[in-house]
Amino acid sequence: MHTTPAETIELATPARAHDRLGRPMHDLRISVMDRCNFRCPYCMPKETFHDRYRFLHTAERLSFEEIARIARLAVALGVRKLRLTGGEPLLRTGLADLVGELSTIVGIEDLALTTNGVLLAQHAAELKANGLRRITVSLDSLDEQIFARMSGGFGGLAQVLDGIGAALAAGLQPVKINTVVQRGVNDHAVLPLLERFRGTGVTVRFIEYMDVGNRNQWQAQQVVPSAELLERVQARWSVTPVPGQYRGEVAERYVYDDGAGEIGFVSSVTAPFCGDCHRARLSSEGVLYTCLFATRGTDLRTPLREGASDEELRSLLRTAWLQRDDRYSELRQELRAQQQPPLHKIEMHYIGG
Ligand SMILES: C[S@@+](CC[C@H](N)C(=O)[O-])C[C@H]1O[C@@H](n2cnc3c(N)ncnc32)[C@H](O)[C@@H]1O
Ligand code: SF4
Fold first, then answer.
1. 222 neighbors 180 (Cβ within 8 angstroms)
2. Ligand 2 close to Cβ of residue 44 (< 6 A)
């Protein structure tokens, strides 16, 4: 993306925000939709997120114009990467229009999307044409029964695989797969995922099951440590670790020694990376959060709709980041032991994964 001289000056000014632990604001994750067409028990268990659950009304969600305005303001504070997520972002009508809008923001170097993939086949080409760079598709198993269990009883495995194919055909690069691993649920069935995508250019990343929100009944023994998974991988294939490429990279990466591609491990439970976390999160109703495990955030929608100036909004963003000292994953054990009643954390479908 090109920059005009005036914009270059604006971007170069020493306005970049650093939090109390010296971490820059670099990524903004935007939840565009709190609803989802799945009910993964680890994220939106259907006992809670049932037919009568009160999701946001359309007018309560930020409009595309409001999202784009916040993204532009965040660039001045240091944000260079945007990721659209949810809930299921492809349930948001016209999402490709938002991608088009965000892709023109000067200073944004990376624009990505995380999706469950069910609706991806029909949208991949348009998303790419409108400026989406890369995509992450969540897929927990190739086994129909395990897939159904981990998506809350929904089918859709064939559509997800079609969606991954469509993303590759559209030229989205790279295509990654996120696999949440839960002991006793899918951990015995993750190697087939690697087998399937070896040599296709698709990177599978194993995600340790996390205690996001308050509804998934998380228990530490359900977490399969990445080290354990790596051992299982090494028993089958020869792999070599890849040194981190940039500060804040969350996945530990390995390459197959036979050149068949890459595998990632995201170990936020057994090897927390809070020290390098530079992500801000914007919920679908316009609340800014500074941690996935936050209990409160900064309302931006009210000032947006009451006519706040860019300077006022930027100041709200900056203040939220300057005050940030979150490092939940590093403190998980202490915080969970201390909190009676438990912390009321924001739910993942709402804040965006
Ligand atoms: C909340 S989802 C939103 C986007 C989209 N619906 C999807 O599933 O890709 C984003 C990511 O968070 C992951 N996720 C959700 N709950 C999780 C949990 N409890 N532990 C680890 N990852 C989780 C999902 O597997 C997914 O890869
Ligand atoms: S992980 Fe994604 S697909 Fe599953 S319930 Fe959560 S938002 Fe929906």
1. no
2. yes
